[in-house]
């Protein structure tokens, strides 16, 4: 059974760079899937941040694109998110997820999420 | 910028039927947007209910169904149960490998 597990610092200072990592277990990261980051501010809805393919191809939410980098480390079966110049508005639960290259298929596996708070 | 719209909240009686919708501030939702629906209870990760407009994910009860109604995607729950009380999110494919989630609908069963 595929499992995704997020890890992150928990607390980041304003203007700094947020970094979170997702570790994939129970399956390969070198597959016909995209690996995604999705976030949810407390009490609010879901926001797709972006995705990466094991080949290194990336796709980003246009509203976040200038601050986001997503990359994959196949040797560690991990993919990571970096979000620069954070503010309190970036406080959220950050989920990693997987979706198929076939866009008719869904985000089918999700991690449990990690809360990142932006505060001085 | 096009925004994906959902009803902020909805209420249904136990055993009743409710239809939640997923629209666009500009344009109509069609099957080409590959609408999918996710259920989320507090403190949990979302769970996939419906994808590609009307295909139920594995293990999802038959009381959940998806469709296109008019210019929106729709999620219908027929015979609502107490444990259907959750937040429901739609996701749409916007082209160029970009996805957008709706703001979510909080469903109350009472």
Molecular structure report:
The complex is a heterodimer of chains A (120) and B (110). Chain A is built from no helices and eleven strands. Chain A is mainly beta and 120 residues long. In chain A, β4 and β5 (47-53) form a beta hairpin. With 110 residues, chain B is mainly beta. Chain B is 0% helix and 50% strand. In chain B, β5 and β6 form a beta hairpin. The model of chain B has no long low-confidence stretch (mean pLDDT 96). Classes of the chains: A mainly beta (120), B mainly beta (110). Chain A binds chain B through residues 34, 36, 38, 44-48, 51, 59, 61-63, 95, 99, 103-108, 110-113, and chain B through 1, 34, 36, 38, 40, 44-48, 51-52, 57, 89, 91, 93, 96-104.
What characteristics describe this protein?
heterodimer; A: 120 residues; mainly beta; four-stranded antiparallel beta sheet; 11 strands; globular; B: 110 residues; seven-stranded mixed beta sheet; 0% helix
State the major sheet of chain B: 7 strands, mixed
- H/E element sequence of chain A: EEEEEEEEEEE
SSE run of chain B: EEEEEEEEEEE
Mean pLDDT of chain A: 95
Count of DSSP strands of chain B: 11
Instruction: Supply the helix-strand structural class of chain B.
Output: mainly beta
Which pair of chains has the greatest number of interface residues, and how are they split between the two chains? A-B, 25 and 25 residues
Low-confidence stretches of chain B: none
Q: Looking at the structure, what is the overall shape of chain A?
A: globular
Assess the beta-strand content of chain B as a share of residues: over 45%
Derived structural class of chain A: mainly beta
The shape of chain B is globular
């Amino acid at each position: 059974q595929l499992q995704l597990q997020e890890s992150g610092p928990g607390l980041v200072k304003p203007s700094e760079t947020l970094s979170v990592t997702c570790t994939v277990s129970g399956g390969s990261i070198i597959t016909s899937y995209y690996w995604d980051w999705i976030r949810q501010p407390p009490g609010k809805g879901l926001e797709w941040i972006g995705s990466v393919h094991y080949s290194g191809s990336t796709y980003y939410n246009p509203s976040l694109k200038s601050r986001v980098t997503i990359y994959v480390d196949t040797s560690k079966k991990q993919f990571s998110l970096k979000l620069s110049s954070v503010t309190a508005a970036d406080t959220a639960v950050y989920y990693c997820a997987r979706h198929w290259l076939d866009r008719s298929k869904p985000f089918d596996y999700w991690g449990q999420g990690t809360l990142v708070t932006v505060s001085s | 910028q096009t925004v994906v719209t959902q009803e902020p909240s909805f209420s249904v009686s136990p055993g009743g039927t409710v239809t939640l919708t997923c629209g666009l501030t500009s344009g109509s939702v069609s099957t080409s947007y590959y609408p999918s629906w996710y259920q989320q209870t507090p403190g949990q990760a979302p769970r996939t209910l419906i994808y590609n407009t009307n295909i139920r994910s594995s293990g999802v009860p038959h009381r959940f169904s998806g469709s296109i109604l008019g210019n929106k995607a729709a999620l219908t729950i027929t015979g609502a149960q107490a444990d259907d009380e959750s937040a429901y999110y739609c996701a749409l494919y916007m082209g160029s490998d970009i996805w957008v989630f709706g703001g979510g609908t909080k469903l109350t069963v009472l």
